[in-house]
Structure formats: structure tokens, C-alpha cells
Design goal:
With 314 residues, this protein is mostly beta strands. The protein has one helix and 28 strands. Strand 11 and strand 12 form a beta hairpin.
Length: 314
Amino acid sequence: MAEAASNKKAMEIPTKLNTSIDCKQGAVRAVRFNVDGSYALTCGSDKTIKLWNPHSSTLIKTYSGHGYEVLDVQSSCDNGQLCSGGLDKAVILWDVASGKTVRKFRGDQGHLSSINCVRFNEESTLVLSGSVDGSVRIWDCKSHKKEPVQILDEAKDSVTSLVVSDHEILTGSADGKTRRYDIRMGQMHSDHIGHSVTCVSFTRDGQCTLVSSLDNTIRLMDKTSGELLNEFSGHTNKTYKIDSCLSCSDTHVISGSEDGKVYIWDLVEAKVEHKLEHGKMTVHSLSYHPTDSCLLTACGNKMWVWKSNYASIA
């Protein structure tokens, strides 16, 4: 039984390099699966966003409209729209099919500095953006108002990462804290990490948070109590904003690293099980398929597609 369980876990881990794609965008700043994992988005230092079928290495569309580097992008729940943000301080809402800009949120009520992260809410009626100016701004996709519907400005330094659930917003900041906003209760809970936070995420069951910080450590924490449940180390993360995430089944923790590898830990034992080699450049962005054993990573000018031998997608 134990051997069968071990083999099942091994099947879930995407350690086989399927392909690497030169995105021709300069440096690829972020890579993201869409909501069902059929497509991928990359944003680059050349001011563009590209939509791909990563499973066939096919470029589908290019989106141009930002004035400087694009740092983050996400697709809506129905795949009809994209939101993006970057060094030009603008949040842009795109129509996927036409490639045209639907809305551009910036100006007097916009961010005062670069935008690190963008997310839709679950219904994709709102866009949330986190910035170097220390704020999260919430924008209404349906309204024609230019000002945000809400500003969360509790952070004392850059907001580096954010994630949204059905009733909560989780943010990470360079001030060394995570903040969880309970929208239903109108409450904010903060946890002191002690080092600049570079990435935050919820576990799939919504009970825990995964927090990366600039002390070469990833922490698994109880969402409600803030109790430290586990720590993951071995990778290098002292300087750059680097993504981490959980596998689609919550069995493994995955992170980029400044030593040119992706590290994969067992969630319970916190042992490094695999290292995915990318060369010498920092692996700063990654995205795990929502339902299958497939991983996207970004390093240099390339998107890398990793699968297990048992992945159900071709």
C-alpha cells in the first residue's frame, strides 16, 4: 500500500521537460495558466502580452498597449478578458478575442508607482492590483468610473503579491507582513513574517496559506490562527520576487530559485524531492495546471512546459 501511494505521488509530479519556447518578448516577467489550463499567458519586457497553447507550442495572439514592461497578467473566469499591470502604473482590461483594450485604469486615482500583481475576483467583475506604492486598488470592470471602488492601503511598503478567493483577499508585502481581508466580515488579519514577502497563495482547501519571503524560506501557515505548520528551504531567494505555489492536489510545494532551478518539496515531510534545471538564470515565475500534472515556468526569454509521464493532457 505504501509503495502504491508513493508511486501515485510520483505520477503527479511534472518533472519531465515537454518543451521550452522562446517567447520573443525580451525577458519573460510572468507566466500564467488560464482558468482551465488550456492556454497560457506570458508578459514580457518588450511591453507585450502573448496568449499561447503551451501544449502544442502555438502562439495564438499578441496584445500591445502598455507603455513599459508588463509584470503580471491573468485571464477572467470565462476566458473572455485579461487584466494586466506593469511599470507604466496602468491596469489594462483586454478583450481576448479582438486583442483590444476595454478599459485602462490609471490617472489621478490610479497607482503612484509600478504594479507588481493583478487578479480578477472569482466572478471577474472586479480587478485587483497591488503596487510598489503600498496599496491594493479594486476596480469595477463593468462601471465606467475612473476611480477605484476601494483602496487597501495598510501595507507600509510594496505590495508584491495578492490572491483572491470567494470572500477573502490575501496580500504579501515587502514590509514583512501578510494581510488577509475578510470581505464578508469587514475585517483585516495580519501575520508578521519578518522578511520581505515575495509570494502568497491559498491551499486548495482554503485552510492554509503559503508564504515565500526573502530569507530563502517558504512557510505553510494556518490561515485562521497564523500558526506555522511547516517550512520549506534549500532554494535561493534573497533578492528577487519569485513565485511559489502548490500542486493541483496540494501534495507538493513548488518554487523558483535564484540558482536556476525549480524546487519541489513534499508538503508533509518538507523534503526536496526534485530539482528542475533551467541553467544559471533566476527562475522567477511559475504556474501549476489547475487539474493536471503540468507546470509552466519562466526563465530568461523562455517559457518551459513540464509534465509528468502520466499527464492526461498531450
